[in-house]
């Protein structure tokens, strides 16, 4: 599930901020595993936004939650939660957290970004292991994977011509990954409760063995101001799958 | 040849039953369809007296096929409310706000 989530997040990644992400938005997806063209629904993925105010600052809380459908819970229960607290305008992260519970495996991870974004204080703990802490340097523009997902939606994609791509950097598992996003064109896609929508089709590739194939990791974003991710197709070492929007509220 | 077809069909029919019981969705159709195809040919080359076992596999495969299709149509995928997970989320958020206040 971690690989699948990583692939999905990579595909949902992008570049320049030109619009704001709304608070109280909720997007629900059905994630499926593909075998010889046949799909089996595995989990529900929920993307949510919420405004969080402290005594000093207001943050946008972005979260991704993955939970297996009840039919899978008896065999392999997944309850993953990825969260980040970002500046509501720049989407620059301050605090990123990951809590993974997949079958017998569990892990928690926390990154605290320095104000200039060049240093991350991290702490992580795996099941039955002591907590480990470390500090590592990253490039100033590096963000966590969740805030990158939302940045993708603030990009003016209409300026990208088919074949054009850009390279970016994200941090995951205490490593920086360059990610290339390529515009492939436009397609009409059935977007769950939103109906058929004209979408930007984009290909994501990264310098990692977690993604496979050329133009096999794809994302479709609605061609409008909200740029809702309506479908994701991913190809990873353990197989292929997809994530399809089933409902969207607060958009 | 007939025995090979019967054994293969039996294997795929059994696999189909297992995948149907487990939550594999339409993936269970793969062995079931294979079993149906194999048992169909086994049935054709069998004499009338030899058709009993092939008929049983055919019925089992057909029933599992209907079960898979029925599950796909009538059983909705749902996520049950996990109280412990919800509690963890609330506690995590409290901890996050503490961290953010301290930055």
Biggest interface: A-B, 34 and 25 residues
Shape of chain B: rod-shaped
Amino- and carboxy-terminal Cα gap of chain A: 27 Å
**What portion of the residues of chain B fall into strands of 2 or more residues?**
under 5%
* Cα Rg of chain A: 17 Å
Helix content of chain B: over 70%
Count helical runs of chain B. Answer: 4
- Rounded to the nearest angstrom, the radius of gyration of chain B is 24 Å
| Low-confidence segments of chain A | 13-18
Specify the overall morphology of chain A: globular
Succession of helices and strands of chain B: HHHH
Oligomer: heterodimer
Q: What ranges of chain B have pLDDT less than 50 throughout 5 or more consecutive residues?
A: none
What structural class do the secondary elements of chain B suggest?
Answer: mainly alpha
Whole-Å distance between the termini of chain B? Answer: 75 Å
The number of distinct β-strands of chain B equals 0
In percent, how helical is the residue content of chain A?
A: under 10%
Task: Walk me through this protein's architecture.
The complex is a heterodimer of chains A (251) and B (103). Chain A has 251 residues and is mostly beta strands. Chain A is built from three helices and 15 strands. Chain A has helices at 2-11, 70-73, 145-152, and strands at residues 26-35, 38-53, 58-68, 79-86, 93-102, 105-113, 119-126, 132-137, 143-144, 165-172, 175-190, 196-206, 218-222, 229-236, 239-249. Chain A has a 15-stranded mixed beta sheet. In chain A, helix 1 (2-11) packs parallel to helix 3 (145-152). The radius of gyration of chain A is 17 Å and the shape is globular. The two termini of chain A are 27 Å apart. The relative contact order of chain A is 0.20. Chain B has 103 residues and is mainly alpha-helical. Helix content of chain B is 79%, strand content 0%. Chain B has helices at residues 2-21, 29-45, 51-74, 83-102. In chain B, helix 1 (2-21) runs antiparallel to helix 2 (29-45), helix 1 (2-21) runs parallel beside helix 3 and helix 2 (29-45) packs antiparallel against helix 3 (51-74). The mean pLDDT of chain B is 90. Chain A binds chain B through residues 30, 35-36, 38-41, 43-44, 52, 54-57, 59, 61, 67-73, 75, 79, 81, 83, 85, 94-95, 97, 99, 101, 112, and chain B through 22-27, 29-30, 75, 77-80, 82, 85, 88-89, 92-93, 96-97, 99-101, 103.
């Amino acid at each position: 599930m971690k690989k699948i989530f990583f692939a999905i997040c990579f595909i949902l990644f992008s570049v320049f901020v030109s619009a704001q992400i709304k608070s109280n938005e909720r997007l629900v997806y059905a994630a499926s595993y593909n075998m010889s063209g046949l799909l089996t629904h595995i989990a529900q993925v929920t993307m949510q936004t919420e405004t969080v105010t402290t005594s000093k600052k207001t943050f946008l809380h972005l979260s991704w939650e993955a939970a297996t459908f009840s039919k899978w819970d008896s065999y392999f229960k997944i309850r993953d939660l990825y969260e980040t607290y970002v500046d509501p305008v720049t989407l620059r992260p301050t605090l990123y957290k990951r809590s993974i519970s997949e079958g017998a495996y569990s892990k928690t991870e926390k990154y605290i970004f320095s104000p200039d974004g060049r240093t991350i204080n991290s702490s992580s703990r795996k099941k039955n292991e002591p907590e480990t802490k470390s500090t590592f340097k990253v490039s100033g523009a590096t963000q966590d994977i969740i805030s990158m997902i939302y940045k993708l939606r603030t990009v003016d994609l209409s300026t990208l011509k088919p074949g054009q791509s850009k390279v970016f950097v994200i941090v995951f598992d205490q490593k920086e990954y360059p990610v290339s996003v390529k515009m492939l064109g436009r397609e009409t896609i059935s977007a769950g409760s939103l109906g058929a929508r004209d979408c930007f089709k984009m290909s994501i590739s990264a310098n990692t063995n977690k993604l496979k194939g050329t133009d096999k990791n794809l994302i479709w974003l609605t061609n409008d101001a909200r740029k809702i991710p309506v479908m994701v197709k991913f190809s990873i070492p353990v197989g292929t799958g997809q994530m399809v929007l089933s409902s969207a509220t607060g958009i | 040849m007939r025995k090979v077809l019967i054994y293969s069909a039996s294997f795929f029919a059994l696999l189909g039953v297992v995948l149907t019981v487990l939550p594999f969705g339409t993936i269970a159709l793969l062995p079931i369809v294979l079993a149906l195809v194999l048992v169909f040919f086994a049935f054709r080359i069998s004499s009338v007296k030899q058709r009993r076992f092939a008929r049983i596999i055919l019925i089992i495969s057909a029933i599992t096929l209907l079960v898979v299709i029925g599950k796909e149509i009538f059983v909705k995928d749902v996520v049950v409310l996990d109280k412990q997970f919800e509690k963890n989320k609330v506690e995590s958020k409290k901890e996050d706000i503490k961290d953010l206040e301290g930055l």
